[in-house]
């Protein structure tokens, strides 16, 4: 199976309201810097936090450390959004000056918590799948080990040197369970474990397998290695802890004090003689074997009980910290395992659940019910029984009691925040509901990047029923809340699918908007997410053009004395680089009022056509091509504009459709039936590249004369997006006659540009240089044409909105971050952005070009209700030079076409008084005609997609019925007016296609209807 090709996408994260520091989701990692009394935590929100304990945790802490702060009260220090996915593990290294984190975003990062930098932690390593665990051989080591779901072990250089060693964690045993969930390391030994239940021991210098231990029966969750590297301790989901000896090569002890999956181990003892273990039930046990001749004779105490499973446990000084799936961290008092065990018969025995004395004046005894046996063969630890007392086993010989943990309430809880855990996209695709871990439901605007309203702690489904609208908009983005924040992901193949009518959007200024104008949602948000970048690039382009012109003039002056004048006809050399850019005096990106740079006022892709049968569909795929009325500046033709941007090949018409959809002139009603006259025209023209001449396109001879060196060189090739081009026969003949010229031309065009914003800008500047080299002293007009403001009204994006450029590839499980920043800092990171932004986004922002994609159409049938009005289409009409079609009453149109446009289509065919430009006091079609579906009256502004998804709601073509509401007299079926109207329509539908016809063409002068040939069949056009 071929790997997925790489592609880049954009993601942005809506900023949460300001809140005190802390995690939003569960905590997965803990690390303690005892020297500085700092606790580090990391969790599923991708955040690393640091906390000041404000109390000495070691003898090295100076007495003045406490200052004026309240002793023992943990305070927030700082935090950083280190990853864009869950953090699964953290370790402190390099004398506690560096903290390394492993994440499900497949990266390993290093953070210097004591530095003043606020930058994202540096990436020191990367896996192909989730990174689950880390291990460091010591506090002064220069490498850290990581393991993940890609079955790999890596050693990474902490100083940024990259990969030190790469180990296949499965060794010679190829297995699907080779993921690495646990690591333990010292300088001489590296141990790994995972779902395979096998402990493998590696040489960290050579990467060779030393040995492997088999004995566990479930996933290995944690590993500890003693300082000498000869003892390994493993915790498993099989409820056991095993101790392995490298010297003996076998398992020495199996500890069974837990009754649930053991998730975490912690020890700061060099020989692991004192260690802590936690399990899925929330129990944390402390084991001490220092004064025991055998490990199984040591003492094990149920130190505390959490309400949920303990993912991570850590200890320092007199305290224990526990991390659970909640966003808070609990601090508990440590247990003195050298204390005396209180017999169960003692009357003055303290309650097992009571906390230790606060003043520490009286030494706490260990309750008998809190002692755990390390294994089934272990005996009660007599070392903690005072001399002279009877054996505790003899006292409780016949007594069976449940184990009670010493503590059930923590001394302190480091509170976290509430992260998002649930979301629901509304039908308008512009808003979404979220619910956080506290149950609060909030409505968000995905375009304004801000919360709209809070509904308190309610059921999300109840809120949805109150505020959701009845409309159908295409999915254009993906919502992700895996880090507790609201992230919006934009994929290039779908982010331009959704459009909304401007009159249905809350906009402060509608003066520059057209009637029934649609706004592309993906294009809209991308335009303003990267607005600082666009402004910066326009300024850079202006400076570069000025500098280039000055250098060219200087070179010309230096060479003028040595060069004799040449007589060059003025008509062969263009006097300026004429590339239009919309502008006004206020802003370089604003459109000029009144100009036609934004194309025809008609709504693009709005066509209803006859949906023919499969038998006639094949014939509709022939001949004809579309031409686009792209925006041009006054006095400039489309041909000149296109010639400045691409080579004059037959493919330029198809490439032109990749420009803004709002810039395309189009029609309302499209038919897929190929008429005989159109077929005859296609057969008569055997040249495959015979393109129709657009009224705004000059002849090819004029193109050749006016084309500059820049126009030949400035070509934005689309890799893999367009079919192979077919050269005209005349062009092929010319190439055969001039092979040397062709070879020279191909050599000149060998320059390759990167498929990112940097390469895009380099290509533009290369075109500037080539043009001025051939035309010194000429003017340079900017080749940047940003998106006009009337297509994307201003959005005030919050500066704290995070922006990501990510890349997905076939060899990684999740998308990797190419760029991370915020809207407020984009203008400071232009150089980094130029290397990260993909070509498709560069073309959108600086050329107003979107990837071409055919609009989705809906098939339906129009019928008069109760036959009270004439039919729109005569189903049994005479054939037009071909076989009759008895199904030509089936129509199709863009899914975003409104019902009132369908009524206009009906009125045009049944109302003799209908005109395209009615009087001001004339009734509009939606005022005297009504449309019904499933016996429901359709509102005039409802789209076909909404009708199908919310009213029709069945398979097959929709059936729409129309009737008059009596406000205007209309001809009845069989009347003379109706017959004349029908015959006129039949005649017009039989007209041959105009030369510039197509789905996006314009109707010929003096005619409402025309039949054109395009890639999808015949088209019946009505200008809006």
Automatic annotation (TrEMBL):
Residues 646-676, 1002-1024 have a biased composition (Polar residues). Gene3D superfamilies: YVTN repeat-like/Quinoprotein amine dehydrogenase. Residues 339-365, 579-601, 619-750, 970-1024 are annotated as: Disordered. GO terms for biological process: double-strand break repair via homologous recombination. Keywords: Repeat, WD repeat. Residues 696-705, 733-750 have a biased composition (Basic and acidic residues). WD repeats lie at residues 20-61, 80-111, 124-166, 187-212, 213-254. GO terms for molecular function: ubiquitin binding. Residues 626-635 have a biased composition (Low complexity). This is Uncharacterized protein. The lineage of its organism: Eukaryota, Fungi, Dikarya, Ascomycota, Pezizomycotina.
């Amino acid at each position: 199976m071929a790997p997925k090709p790489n592609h880049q996408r954009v993601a942005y994260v809506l900023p949460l309201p300001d809140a005190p520091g802390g995690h939003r989701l569960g905590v997965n990692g803990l690390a303690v810097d005892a020297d500085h009394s700092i606790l580090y935590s990391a969790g599923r929100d991708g955040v690393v936090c640091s906390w000041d304990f404000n109390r000495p945790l070691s003898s090295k802490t100076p007495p003045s450390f406490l200052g004026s702060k309240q002793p023992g009260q943990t305070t927030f220090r700082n935090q950083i959004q280190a990853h864009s996915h869950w953090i699964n593990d953290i370790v402190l290294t390099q004398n506690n000056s560096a903290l390394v984190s492993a994440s499900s975003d497949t990266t390993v990062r290093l953070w210097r918590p004591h530095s003043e930098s606020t930058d994202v932690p540096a990436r020191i390593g990367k896996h192909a799948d989730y990174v689950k665990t880390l291990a460091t051989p010591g506090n002064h080591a220069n490498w850290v080990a990581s393991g993940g779901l890609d079955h790999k072990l890596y050693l990474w250089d902490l100083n940024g040197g990259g990969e030190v060693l790469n180990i296949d964690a499965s060794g010679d045993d190829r297995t699907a369970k080779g993921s690495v969930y646990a690591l333990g390391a010292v300088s001489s030994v590296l141990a790994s474990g995972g779902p395979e239940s096998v402990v493998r021991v590696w040489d960290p210098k050579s990467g060779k397998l030393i040995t492997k231990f088999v004995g566990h029966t479930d996933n290995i969750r944690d590993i500890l290695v003693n300082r000498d590297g000869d003892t390994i301790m493993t915790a498993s989901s099989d409820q056991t802890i095993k101790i392995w000896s490298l010297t003996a090569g076998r398992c020495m002890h199996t500890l069974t004090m837990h009754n649930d999956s053991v998730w975490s181990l912690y020890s700061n003892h060099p020989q692991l003689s004192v260690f802590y273990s936690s399990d899925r039930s929330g129990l944390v046990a402390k084991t001490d074997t220092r004064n025991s001749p055998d490990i199984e004779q040591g003492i094990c105490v149920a130190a505390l009980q959490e309400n949920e499973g303990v993912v991570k446990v850590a200890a320092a000084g007199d305290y224990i910290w526990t991390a659970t799936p909640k966003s808070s961290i609990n601090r508990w008092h440590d247990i003195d395992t050298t204390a005396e065990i209180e017999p169960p018969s003692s009357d003055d025995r303290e309650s097992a659940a009571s906390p230790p004395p606060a003043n520490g004046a009286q030494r706490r005894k260990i309750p008998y019910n809190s002692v755990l046996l390390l294994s089934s063969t272990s005996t009660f630890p007599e070392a903690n029984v005072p001399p002279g007392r009877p054996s505790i086993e003899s006292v409780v010989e016949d007594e069976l009691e449940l184990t009670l943990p010493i503590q059930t309430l923590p001394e302190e809880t480091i509170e976290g925040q509430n992260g998002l855990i649930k979301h629901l996209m509304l039908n308008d695709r512009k808003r979404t509901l979220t619910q956080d871990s506290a149950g609060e439901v909030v409505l968000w605007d995905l375009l304004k990047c801000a919360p709209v309203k809070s509904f308190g702690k309610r059921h999300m489904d109840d809120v949805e029923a109150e505020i959701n609208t009845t409309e159908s908009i295409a999915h254009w983005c993906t919502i992700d809340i895996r880090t507790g924040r609201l992230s919006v992901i934009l994929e290039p193949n779908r982010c331009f699918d959704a459009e909304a009518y401007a009159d249905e959007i809350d906009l402060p200024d509608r003066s520059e908007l057209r009637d029934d104008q649609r706004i592309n949602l993906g294009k809209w948000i991308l335009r303003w997410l990267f607005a600082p970048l666009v402004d910066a690039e326009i300024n850079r382009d202006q400076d570069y053009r000025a500098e280039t012109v000055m250098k060219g003039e200087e070179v010309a002056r230096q060479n003028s004395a040595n060069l004799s004048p040449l007589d060059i006809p003025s008509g062969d050399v263009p006097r300026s680089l004429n590339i239009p850019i919309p502008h006004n005096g206020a802003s370089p990106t604003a459109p000029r009022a009144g100009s036609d740079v934004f194309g025809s006022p008609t709504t693009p892709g709005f066509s209803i056509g006859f949906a023919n049968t499969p038998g006639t569909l094949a014939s509709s795929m022939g001949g004809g091509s579309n031409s686009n009325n792209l925006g041009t500046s006054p006095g400039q033709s489309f041909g000149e504009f296109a010639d400045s941007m691409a080579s004059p090949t037959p493919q330029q018409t198809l490439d032109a459709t990749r420009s803004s959809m709002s810039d395309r002139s189009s029609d309302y009603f499209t038919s897929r039936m190929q008429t005989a006259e159109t077929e005859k025209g296609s057969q008569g023209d055997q040249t495959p590249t015979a393109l129709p001449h657009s009224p705004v396109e000059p002849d090819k001879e004029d193109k050749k004369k006016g084309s500059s060196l820049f126009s030949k060189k400035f070509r934005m090739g689309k890799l893999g997006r367009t079919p192979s081009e077919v050269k005209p026969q005349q062009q092929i003949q010319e190439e055969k006659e001039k092979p040397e010229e062709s070879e020279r031309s191909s050599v000149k065009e060998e320059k390759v540009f990167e498929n990112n914003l940097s390469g895009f800008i380099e290509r533009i500047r290369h075109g500037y240089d080539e043009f001025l080299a051939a035309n010194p002293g000429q003017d340079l007009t900017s080749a940047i044409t940003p998106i006009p403001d009337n297509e994307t009204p201003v959005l005030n994006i919050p500066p704290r909105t995070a922006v990501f450029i990510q890349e997905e590839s076939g060899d990684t499980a999740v998308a990797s971050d190419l760029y991370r920043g915020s809207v407020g800092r984009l203008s400071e990171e232009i150089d980094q952005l130029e290397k990260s932004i993909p070509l498709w986004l560069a073309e959108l922002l600086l050329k107003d070009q979107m990837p071409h994609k055919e609009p989705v159409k809906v098939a339906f049938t129009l019928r008069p209700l109760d036959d009270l009005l004439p039919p729109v289409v005569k189903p049994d009409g005479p054939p037009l030079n071909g076989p009759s079609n008895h199904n030509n009453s089936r129509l199709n149109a863009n899914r975003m076409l409104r019902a009132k446009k369908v009524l206009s289509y009906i009125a045009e065919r049944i109302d003799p008084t209908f005109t395209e430009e009615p009087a001001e006091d004339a009734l509009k079609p939606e005022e005297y005609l009504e449309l019904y579906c499933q016996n429901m009256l359709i509102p005039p502004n409802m789209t076909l997609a909404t009708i199908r998804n919310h009213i029709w709601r069945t398979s097959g073509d929709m059936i729409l019925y129309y009737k008059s509401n009596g406000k205007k007299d209309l001809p009845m079926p069989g009347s003379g007016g109706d017959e004349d109207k029908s015959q006129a329509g039949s005649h017009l539908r039989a007209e041959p296609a105009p030369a510039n016809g197509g789905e996006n063409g314009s109707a010929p002068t003096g005619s409402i209807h025309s039949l054109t040939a395009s890639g999808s069949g015949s088209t019946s056009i009505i200008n809006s």
